[in-house]
Design brief:
By secondary structure, this protein is α/β, with parallel strands linked by helices. It has 2 domains: 123 residues, no CATH class; 153 residues, 3-Layer(aba) Sandwich (Rossmann fold). The chain contains 12 helices and 10 strands. The strands form 3 sheets. The protein has a 5-stranded parallel β-sheet with strand order 7-6-4-8-9, with helices on both faces. Helix 8 links the parallel strand 8 and strand 9. The protein is globular. The two termini are 33 Å apart.
Length: 290
């Protein structure tokens, strides 16, 4: 089905959860939400075939989709929450902050003052800082060197894939490993990475110049609505307990389905070897949601 279903290795994570070959996941018969947004969960610039189901991360997203006229929707939970259910955290030392500057994408470049953002990060973060750039900004020597000259560790989780090419099943695994080595996660805009970090046990923060996309339109209310509706997640210091509740709700960590139910919705086959299906017990699913 749609190539965006494979972004960030999402279909690979779900195939593994369902006991199927995660090296070559089957096609999902529907559109899978691939990032957090404040609308119906789908990318606003994608065209959709009427009647094809939408697989959304959370009940909150499903309600927003319903209000926008989307009817054939199913809440399945985010691939990130399934990954955490299969990869429970162990004891480890966390240090510093991983910072995700708002980024552009293949269709729009970012417009903003990186030096100003660096000054804001330095004023807030006491420990070592890792800056994670989107692949476009990472490949741009001009952008990357802003953060390298500031003394930050600069990384990239990889390429998300596109048009069924250059798929990267290890993207989320690398992101999880990085988040679990940091005490804080921060960005200048509320985004998927911040929610992922919260669910992975990081203390969140959203502050700094939000920057802009070239030709950015305030879809579904834009930044003013985000700052108004998710006010508790904004600021250099955020209450971690309140943030956890919001992250669970937005990522659907309390709505994970059993493998058989997920396979049925996606129209995926039964695993050849039923013993390969991950044994994610109810207690482990609840731990992800807590």
């Amino acid at each position: 089905m749609h190539h965006a279903n494979h972004y960030y290795g999402h279909s690979h994570v779900l195939a593994r959860y369902c006991g199927l070959d995660d090296r070559d996941p089957p096609r999902i018969h529907g559109y899978l939400q691939h990032g957090w947004n404040i609308g119906d969960g789908m990318a606003y610039d994608h065209e959709f075939v009427p009647g094809v189901p939408l697989f959304l991360w959370s009940e909150r997203t499903r309600r927003r989709a319903w209000s926008l006229g989307r009817r054939q929707t199913y809440v399945v939970g985010s691939p990130w929450a399934y990954l955490l259910a299969m990869e429970p955290d162990g004891p480890q030392r966390r240090e510093g902050t991983i910072w995700y500057p708002f980024h552009g994408w293949e269709g729009q470049r970012i417009v903003g003052d990186h030096d100003r953002l660096i000054d804001e990060i330095r004023a807030v973060e006491p420990g070592p800082v890792t800056v994670c750039l989107y692949w476009q900004e990472y490949r741009s020597t001009r952008v990357r060197q802003h953060y390298e000259r500031a003394g930050f560790r600069v990384i990239c989780h990889g390429y998300r894939g596109g048009r069924w090419r250059d798929l990267d099943p290890g993207f989320l695994h690398r992101q999880l490993a990085e988040l679990r080595r940091h005490r804080r996660v921060a960005s200048n805009r509320l985004c998927s990475a911040v929610f992922y970090g919260i669910l992975a046990g990081c203390e969140p923060a959203v502050y700094g110049d939000p920057m802009q996309l070239a030709g950015e339109a305030p879809i579904w209310g834009g930044q003013p609505r985000i700052r108004r509706q998710w006010a508790d997640l904004h600021g250099p210091q955020v209450d971690p307990d309140s943030a956890r509740v919001l992250a669970v709700a937005e990522l659907g960590a309390d709505r994970l389905l059993p493998p058989a139910e997920l396979r049925r919705l996606f129209r995926w086959p039964e695993p050849a070897d039923r013993h390969q299906v991950p044994m994610v017990r109810d207690a482990e699913r609840s731990e992800v949601a807590r």
